[in-house]
Every structure is written in C-alpha cells, then in structure tokens.
Design a protein that fits this description.
This protein is mainly α and 256 residues long. The protein has 12 helices and no strands. It is globular. It starts with a helix and ends with a helix.
C-alpha cells in the first residue's frame, strides 16, 4: 500500500498530471458516446505508466462516475427496468467481492489475454447480422449468468466495460437505449468500487485531483461527447460499437 506522500509523488509532477488529464479528456469523450471508455481504456493506460492499481482507481473512478451520472440524468433518470434490476441483484455484489480480492492481492488479476480474445471473437461475430441475432438470444437467455460474471470480472480487473457493452448491445438496438443502460451499470460499478477503495485502501492521491480530473471528464462530455453521439446514426453507431469492442480486445491482447 502506498502512503499519502508516495502516492502524491507518483501523480503530482506536471508532466504526469498533463498526461493523466489528456487520457481523461480523450477517453471521457469515448465514454460519452458508448457509455464505457474511461475504465476500459484508462485503466491499462495508467497501469502501463507505472501507477499502482489503487491509485489508478482513485484517478479514473470519479471521472467515470460523473460522466455516467450525466448520461443517466439526461436519458430518463434512475428507473428500475428488468435489466437494471438484474445488474443490482447480481452484478453489484460481485463487483464489491471482486474489488476486495483485487485490493487484497495488491494488484489487478491479469485476465487481459482471455478477455481480449473473447472480445475480438465477439466483434468478428457481430459483423454478421444473423450471428449477432443468435448472440443476442444467448445473452438474453443467460442474462443472470452474464451479469454475475461481469461483476466478478470488473471487480478483479476493472476491465468489464467491453463485456458490459456486449451484454447491453445484445439486448437493445437503439443507440439511446444501449448507452443509457450501459451508463447505469457502469456508473453503479464505479460507485461501488470507489466506496470499497476509499474504505479499505485509500489511494492517497492529492485531494484537488478528485475535483480537477472529474471536471475535465465532464467538460469532455458536454463539449465533445454529446455532439459526437448526436451525429452518429443507428447503423453507424452499431458499427462503431463493434469496432470499439474489437479495438478493446486488440489492446488487451497487445498489452497482455
């Protein structure tokens, strides 16, 4: 575990702060469009920069929470539709348990290769409309199992965003429905993880970063992400979603 001083030293240099802010700016825009991005791409990026897992969570989770909250607030608010009740019942406790295990071990569990191959395969299969329909049928039938596995994976690795995208995109086709349900679950998972981190392994990053980095993320959402989301048509959005799933899988494999 890093002390307050050592954690501050890791993130408080001007060059590193600028790099982290740029990472937040870019991936907040991605999350603004698809509902995921800051944790999916930000976590491996900051880990490759040499930051410890609790410090990475301390930087990325508040940013993810503010973007997800803005998305939920502007797309119907908090409603308990069936898929959301499943997330609350199965995904939420699994995220807490997985995060506790990962923090106890002092690092994330390295499942990048396994998850990367699975996401690349899913992206390849989504290219075919017929296969995409069959994937949707399987996910719908086994939603509870997928929701539980998602929580465990995300708690252990912080990399559940790609799997969450596959689950929700299998249940919905309209881009607004896809993003609002992803945002609900992604925000829920981030809130739970941040609570676990702060209660058990406080990252000790400078207090101003808990304000400054989320402010950068929110600015990216309002100024860039919303415009990009409105510009994307339904078919284009589904194609970009497939590319994002495959791109995330490729990144995980390349960094495994």
């Amino acid at each position: 575990m890093h002390s307050l001083q050592s954690a501050a030293e890791l993130v408080d240099s001007p060059g590193r702060l600028a790099a982290i802010a740029c990472i937040v700016l870019v991936f907040a825009a991605v999350q603004s469009v698809f509902g995921v991005g800051l944790l999916v791409f930000g976590t491996p990026t900051l880990l490759l920069m040499g930051l410890p897992f609790p410090v990475v969570l301390g930087c990325m989770l508040p940013c993810s929470i503010v973007v997800s909250t803005a998305q939920v607030a502007t797309s119907g608010g908090v409603t308990l539709e069936p898929i959301r009740r499943t997330f609350l019942r199965l995904t939420a406790p699994a995220v807490v348990a997985g995060t506790l295990v990962a923090l106890a071990l002092g690092t994330k569990i390295d499942l990048r290769l396994l998850v990367g191959v699975m996401l690349l395969l899913t992206a390849a299969l989504r290219v075919s409309e017929g296969i995409r329909t069959r994937i949707s049928a399987v996910v719908t039938r086994r939603l509870g199992s997928f929701a539980l596995a998602l929580g465990v994976l995300h708690g252990l690795t912080n990399l559940g965003g790609g799997v969450l995208t596959v689950i929700v995109a299998s249940a919905y086709r309209d881009k607004a429905d896809v993003r609002r349900h992803i945002a609900f679950c992604y925000g829920l998972m981030a809130i739970l993880q941040l609570a676990v981190v702060e209660l058990t392994t406080p990252p000790g990053i400078p207090l101003y970063l808990y304000v400054a980095l989320p402010a950068v993320a929110l600015a990216s959402y309002w100024l860039v992400g919303r415009l990009l989301f409105r510009m994307a048509g339904q078919s284009v959005y589904q194609g970009l979603l497939t590319l994002m799933i495959g791109g995330f899988g490729a990144v995980l494999i390349a960094t495994a």
